[in-house]
Task: structure prediction
Amino acid sequence: MTQLRAITEQSQVIVTCGTGGVGKTSVAAALGVVAAQQGRRVVVVTIDPARRLLDAIGLEDNTGNEIQQVPLDSVGELWVTMLDVRETFDSLVRNTSPTVERANEVMQNSFYRSLSKSLSGTRDYMAAERLYNLHNDPRFDLVIVDTPPSRNALDFLESPERLARFLKHPIVRFLVAPSRGGFRIANAAMQPVLKAISGIVGGDALTGAAAFLRAFDGMETEFSRRALAVAATLRSDATHFVIVTAPATDALTEADHFVSELSRLRISLRHVVANRMPPTFGVLTAAEEKEQARVTTSDLSTAHSIIAGLCEDAENAKTGIGAFLERTQVLFPQLNITYANEMPADIHDMESIAILASQLAVHPS
Ligand SMILES: Nc1ncnc2c1ncn2[C@@H]1O[C@H](COP(=O)(O)OP(=O)(O)O)[C@@H](O)[C@H]1O
Ligand SMILES: [Mg+2]
Result:
């Protein structure tokens, strides 16, 4: 069995990362197909706000956090969903709140409302929370996370710990603490700190934040517990990270960036998918085809020149990926690779995703 097939068969979480345009979303969906064929019940969640996955799979009507099953002729099941930040945050508040009234108080708070729609950190944290939910959902035994095409796509990995730290911060503890005789913000010792914060976020937002954190009191224990549970899952043997890249120089530079991010986060990388590889032709090398073009006098000479060019593309692609693999294996010696060819047409439907899946399933690592 190839390493990639072992990963789709055994992991509980797979995270694909890589720069935009390399085929990350397509590969995430194709890995879902491979796993479903192995009999697993898979959900692919795309954190990328672009709707490409759903459009390609023919589920354009999907909204919010809705989870839809993809019709597939396989033993297992394939489901897909997107991330709706607000919906995830609301359900987190509802699930952790001691009473319905308290949940409503938090959800109606102005600070909460701005927090749940504007901060990019919130998006990261909700991606982690969504992963927690799907990972613990008895309907699925594998969650595949398709990350957005940004350089900081892996920030969500750190957000659970960041949140847990934030909730333990003395200022937060202070604001949450029940106050006797009115608002604690009147405390003289806190004045310079609060002044500094309100200078940044504005006085109104600060009052909203304080009210939010008080309404939130008691819920933070469960928030932290879930956040730390996701952080542990992401670092466990049940999770695998797959870097998707293409042979283009800029894609490989970005892949290097993700490799160093994973290394910094002390997360091990086991697999790379080299997608969009130029297909190879015949048995001759580019140099041999060029030689044929030189010695042939008929029309065939032009054909040999064209083939020589295509062979050269394929050879350069192999060299570029080979060099990337070599430098990455210095950090991650167990790293394996699977190649997938550039197909003649875009990947825009289930049929083409299935073709990509069959390439990923059989190509030797
Ligand atoms: N192996 C492939 N062959 C042909 N086209 C591909 C292949 N992989 C991806 N594509 C195309 O590249 C574009 C980007 O793919 P996508 O999966 O959305 O990448 P990403 O999520 O990395 O931005 C899409 O138009 C897709 O159809
Ligand atoms: Mg994508």
User: Anything to note?
Assistant: Residues 180-186 have pLDDT under 50 and may be disordered. Residues 3 and 241 are 13 Å apart (CA to CA).
